[in-house]
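Translate sequence into structure tokens.
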Amino acid sequence: EVQFVESGGGLVQAGGSLRLSCAASGFNIDDYAIGWFRQAPGKEREGVSCIKSSDGNANYTESVRGRFTTSIDNAKKTAYLQMNSLKPEDTAVYYCAAHIVWDSELSLQSMCDDIDYWGKGTLVTVSS
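Result follows.
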């Protein structure tokens, strides 16, 4: 069974940092993309970042660009989301999700718009 499990969430003061991890199990694919998404209370889920395992190419939503960094350790099948300069508006449940790359011609964003597996999420709370 394929599973993606997020960890690293918690309570942090504004201006602080957290690093989220997304560990895959039962997942023997070498070419994939990992998206990080978040859903704040009363709001729709939004994409935060997307990264390709093959080349580390990543993109970010504008509100986190320059503060968040995503990375992948292919050997460990683990992705990370380093979150710095956190703001109260970053408070949300954060999810990682995977797209299996069948078509390498797809754009990075298209990959993360087409998710095959979801994690269950980890809560990040940023106090002011």
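Note: The longest strand covers residues 92-100.
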